[in-house]
Amino acid sequence: MTTKQKILKEALNLFSEKGYNEVYVGDIAEAVGIKAPSLYKHYKSKQDIFNAILDEMKNGYEQQALALSMDGNNAETDAGVFSAVSEDRLVQMGTMLFMYFLHDDTASKFRKMLTIEQFRDPSLSLLYQKQYIDDPLSYQTAMFALLTANGFMIQQDPDIMALHFYAPIYMLLTVCDRQPERENEILRTVEQHIRQFNRLYVKEKQ
């Protein structure tokens, strides 16, 4: 692991434990085992470190989506993917994404950091809202609208469909964050949720 990678790793560890604003560049340098001036050779500021972590998290998600043969950001592309898979494959994809967000070191610690900071820092509160509420719901609303328009799903409000699908999954993810010992139970619930959603909204094939 390079010094630059160590800086990101230790910074995220500290951010997820204390919150972004309670960590200083000197704290990060100490955790890495270097002096603060040496850290500035790699990153200009704490914000620069934060931006690099955010980029790393986005890249990790895109790689995971690609491994599942989906885009993860483009609703039009993914509507075609999801309309062609079986219910079992849908469950598998949903479970793998859930496990990624739960166990990926960057994704899980970044979520914990924003959870801490959402009530203390207005800018990070907005990022929390965008990252975990607005963007996922916007993507899924667009996808369900397309799947409804092409006759794959029954005619219902796509905004509400997105809430029906995403809200329980994100809630269950936060339960696992607080109570990791419940993971197996939660995974069974995620599967049941995906199967029931699929049976409620997807039209039966004639």
What does this structure look like?
The N and C termini lie far apart (55 Å). Helix content is 76%, strand content 0%. The protein contains ten helices and no strands. It has 206 residues and is an all-alpha fold.
Task: Give a brief description.
This protein is mainly alpha-helical and 206 residues long. Helix content is 76%, strand content 0%.
Rough outline: elongated
Averaged pLDDT, please?
94
Give helix % range: over 70%
In whole angstroms, the N-to-C terminal distance is 55 Å
- Rg measurement, Å: 19 Å
Helix count equals: 10
Strand content: under 5%
Query: How many E strands?
Result: 0
**Topology order in helix (H) and strand (E) letters:** HHHHHHHHHH
Structural class: mainly alpha
Sheet of most strands: none
Any key phrases for this structure?
mainly alpha; elongated
